[in-house]
Amino acid sequence: MKITHTQTELIAMVRANLTRHRVEAGLTQTELAKRAKLSVGWINDIEHGRRTGLSVASIAPICAGLGIHPAMLFLPPGKAAKMVDMLTTQTYQDLVDETDAPV
């Protein structure tokens, strides 16, 4: 799996994942905008690639509106489900133990 991505690739990933999560949640752009307290135009611009200056301050309310962790927007398309399954099959303590393990 590719580890580094260009800004263009990251934006494309966020766009694809945002749209996919919104549709999977059964939300329209208007409904997500209301939940995230953002304008519908803003959501539409992100999904159509007209807005590229994304920040934590803008991603956080979108993720809250979708009920997902922000990392979900940055997972490679098609790999998100597999990665989530991998994470959810381990306990939190397993993840902490792996993080703390000496290298």
Text of the CATH class of the domain at 7-75? Mainly Alpha
The CATH superfamily of the domain at 7-75 is identified as lambda repressor-like DNA-binding domains
The unreliable regions are none
Reported for the largest beta sheet, the result is: none
- Helix proportion: 55-70%
Structural class category: mainly alpha
Gross morphology is globular
Query: In the CATH classification, which architecture of the domain at 7-75 applies?
Result: Orthogonal Bundle
Question: Which fold name fills CATH's third level, the topology of the domain at 7-75?
Answer: 434 Repressor (Amino-terminal Domain)
CA-CA gap between termini: 21 Å
The total beta strand count reads 0
Mean pLDDT: 81
**CA-atom Rg in angstroms:** 15 Å
The ordered string of helix (H) and strand (E) elements is: HHHHHH
Task: Outline the structure in words.
It is built from 6 helices and no strands. By secondary structure, the protein is mainly α. α2 packs across α3 and α2 packs across α4. It is globular and about 40 Å long.
Keywords:
single chain; mainly alpha; 6 helices; 434 Repressor (Amino-terminal Domain)
What would a concise description of this structure say?
The chain has 103 residues and is mostly helical. The chain has helices at residues 7-24, 29-36, 40-47, 56-66, 80-88, 92-100. Helix 2 packs across helix 3 and helix 2 crosses helix 4.
